[in-house]
């Protein structure tokens, strides 16, 4: 009997195990089939789940996936299709805040980061006090501490100017616990890659906000191409004060980072929403001392130097740019014929330039087709025909031939976004390149018309470049250039403009 009972128990356990495993396998197959109907992959599902789009009651279904995609597309202000496509995935790769956009997390803010909301915390109902203290607990090595403090002071001032709130800084080591605590972190659940989640915060009265140390933080666009600390801090402080993400295009509390803005300020939507919680600022304005401007001597007009390359002087009407790229130290390399120019962050031609391309890039050819630099990998790429020259700094890493038969015999521009996506241009079309172990190949679905993404940009370009953390793309043709706003996806008014005066000070 004991043997029979043991056999029966084993049989029962086996049947139960197979049933559970079979059910799990069936669920996976069913989920895969649903994902296939909306062209979704695992990364898409993970993103939508992380930022609250897959939250809600009920079992997983194709309709739930489609609704999640549609909600994200509305938040990103792109065409609503209910299916994953190029533009949707492009927006998913944009730098952004780590707070959820929808669902319970967008109101509570902390559950996705494992922080417990206590009864004393008022969530997004606002702070019960009006005079708040803040402390910067550590610093990023990207900037001097005083510059970082100034960026946060400006960020807090944006909110105190329109509300009755006041913010007082506590120094590191000062006694007492501050209401708001700011820290740079190099790891964490929400920080996975450079150019992904930039920072996150918690709703009142938690008081914690975290910034990704791996990002390249900047102030006042110096150096160019980094993430502006004041702009991101202003966004996160909005969360600390109780605001969830905004669906209004261009709002400071919109989830995506839009790049550096010279005259950055809160938008109408941000002001209206914060004043619903705290009311308006009724304090009398602080008088500002009158400062007489110091007279400056009238600058003498300058003209770029003649390069000794005939009509290829950068101030000549016949000057043409073969390729252009911005390297990680915010200097621009401009290639023309057999020479290279280096433009500094101050907008001047560096001393000792132009000079032979091979002086900076050994073994590089003259009259290149295109150039681009990837902040993500640290590599620079020069293209000539189907030849690819790959550099790290000024060291040649490899010289290969692109064997993909779909690769054009010559290209007319290349640019690399912060997420590592590399695009090349030929005629009125563009391609995405995927880098393998030995060479590069064209991604599926290409070529595509340039105007599919960059509307009103002509074909047959000379050079291309993207700057300001993906905010703007520049397209050079002849002696003119076009400036394209990648966030609003439109050509800026007043373009094209002459290349010489803007880029070379001619």
TrEMBL record:
Residues 284-302 have a biased composition (Pro residues). Zn(2+) binds at residues 97, 235, 239, 245. Its cofactor is Ca(2+); Zn(2+). It holds the Pfam family Hemopexin. The keyword Lipid metabolism does not apply. The active site is at 236. Ca(2+) 3 binds at residues 212, 215. GO terms for molecular function: metalloendopeptidase activity; zinc ion binding. Residues 303-312 have a biased composition (Low complexity). Keywords: Calcium, Hydrolase, Metal-binding, Metalloprotease, Protease, Repeat, Signal, Zinc, Zymogen. Ca(2+) 2 binds at residue 179. Residues 1-22 form the signal peptide. Hemopexin repeats lie at residues 312-364, 365-404, 408-457, 458-506. This is Matrix metalloproteinase-16. It comes from Lingula anatina (Brachiopod).
């Amino acid at each position: 009997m004991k043997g029979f009972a043991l056999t029966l128990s084993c049989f029962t356990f086996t049947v139960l195990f197979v049933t559970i495993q079979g059910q799990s396998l069936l669920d996976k197959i069913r989920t895969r089939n649903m994902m296939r109907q909306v062209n979704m992959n695992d990364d898409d599902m993970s993103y939508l789940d992380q930022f609250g789009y897959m939250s809600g009651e009920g079992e997983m279904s194709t309709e739930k996936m489609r609704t999640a995609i549609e909600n994200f597309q509305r938040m990103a202000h792109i065409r609503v299709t209910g299916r994953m496509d190029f533009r949707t995935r492009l927006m998913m790769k944009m730098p952004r805040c780590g707070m959820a956009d929808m669902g319970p997390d967008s109101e509570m803010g902390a559950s996705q980061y494992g922080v417990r909301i206590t009864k004393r915390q008022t969530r997004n109902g606002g702070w019960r006090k009006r005079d708040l203290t803040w402390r910067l607990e550590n610093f990023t090595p990207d900037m001097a501490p005083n510059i970082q403090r100034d960026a946060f002071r400006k960020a807090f001032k944006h909110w105190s100017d329109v509300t009755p709130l006041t913010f007082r800084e506590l120094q590191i080591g000062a006694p007492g616990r501050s209401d708001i605590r700011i820290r740079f972190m190099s790891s964490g659940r929400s920080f996975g890659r450079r150019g992904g989640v930039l920072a996150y915060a918690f709703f009142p009265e938690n008081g914690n906000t975290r910034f990704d140390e791996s990002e390249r933080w900047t102030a006042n666009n110096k150096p160019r191409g980094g993430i502006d600390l004041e702009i991101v801090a202003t966004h996160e402080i909005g969360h600390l004060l109780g605001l969830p993400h905004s669906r209004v295009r261009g709002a400071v509390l919109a989830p995506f980072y839009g790049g550096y803005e010279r005259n950055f300020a809160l938008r109408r939507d941000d002001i209206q929403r914060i004043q619903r919680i705290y009311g308006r600022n009724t304090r009398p304005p602080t008088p500002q001392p009158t400062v007489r401007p110091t007279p400056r001597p009238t600058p003498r007009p300058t003209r770029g130097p003649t390069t000794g390359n005939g009509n290829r002087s950068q101030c000549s009407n016949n000057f043409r740019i073969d390729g252009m790229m911005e390297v990680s130290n915010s200097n621009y390399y401009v290639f023309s014929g057999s020479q290279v120019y280096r433009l500094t962050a101050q907008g001047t031609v560096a001393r000792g330039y132009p000079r032979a391309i091979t002086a900076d890039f050994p073994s590089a050819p003259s009259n290149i087709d295109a150039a681009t630099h990837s902040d993500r990998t640290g590599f620079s790429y020069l293209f000539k025909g189907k030849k690819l020259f790959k550099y790290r700094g000024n060291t040649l890493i490899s010289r290969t031939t692109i064997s993909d038969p779909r690769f054009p015999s010559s290209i007319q521009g290349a640019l690399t976004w912060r997420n590592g996506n590399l695009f090349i241009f030929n005629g009125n079309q563009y391609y995405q390149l995927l880098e393998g172990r030995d060479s590069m190949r064209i991604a599926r679905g290409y070529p595509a018309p340039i105007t599919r993404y960059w509307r009103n940009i002509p074909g047959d370009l000379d050079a291309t470049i993207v700057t300001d953390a993906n905010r703007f793309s520049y397209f050079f043709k002849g002696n003119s250039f076009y400036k394209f706003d990648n966030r609003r996806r439109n050509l800026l008014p007043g373009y094209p403009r002459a290349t010489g005066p803007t880029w070379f000070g001619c």
